[in-house]
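Raw record, unedited: LEM domain-containing protein 2
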Amino acid sequence: STLLGADPRPGLRATRTGSAGAARARPEAGRRLERCLSRLLFWASLGLLLVFLGILWVKMGKPSAPQEAEDNMKLLPVDCDSKTDEFCQAKQKAALLELLHELYNFLAIQAGNFECGNPEKLKSKCIPVMEAQEYLANVTSSSSAKFEAALTWILSSNKDVGIWLKGEDPSELVTTVDKVVCLESARPRMGVGCRLSRALFTAITNLLIFFWCLAFLWGLLILLKYRWRKLEEEEQAMYEMVKKIIDVVQDHYVDWEQDMERYPYVGILHVRDTLIPPQSRRRMKRVWDRAVEFLASNESRIQTESHRVAGEDMLVWRWTKPSSFSDSER
């Protein structure tokens, strides 16, 4: 009776204590990772707002001002057809500036219209040379020679006058006037409404990309939290199941010693059917399998054997007393 009254399960307590410590360590690591991810997503959300405002500010920008192009135009060299008098040079420079200003404004307006809905149904922002020449001839009454001279000055200048000269292949650099196919404005002139709508579209597009990325990360965090919680609950359920199995196997062995049971062992499936109701066996299958695996590798007092019971081979559990019990009995 003294032997039966003492706690025969010191090994289980040690095992459960060590396993519980490991179980607590794992959720603690998960919680630390959860906190880090939460802080990261908070700062990412704040950064997303700042990026949205920054994109909106940059895309709005300021209206294209021709002042820079005009300043650069004034720096273009002026050929006065071998005439060196100041009056001729002043007239030539004024005519050149007028021609370039009209060309700049025309190309900027056409490019802006193309970017803002293209009401004139243009095929491209790059305006054909003949169309640009005809426009300047109608507005300024300039000859084709003046137009070609203006293009030559643009090609020979290393300054940015806000006009791009393009050939058949837009990727190749044009070096001569005869290879120029079309002219394009480097600074499309758009109204405030158009610039605002384009800025909003760009900002909202980028915002949606960032939003979906953040939504994916938040979803991943929620999934990880759910997974960690389920693992923790499953771990706890497994230890509870191990405790119940040990109690059942030990009680069966005690009953056998008192001639209340026919065999000193009990079938594993019989223990399962005793502890888990039929409606819960599918849901508890993983917990049961983990508990059986845990007992096989961590519990020395329960021995797994194979016996023929009622004409069928089945796996059984047998309670094995620790050696200290055997020595006391001797």
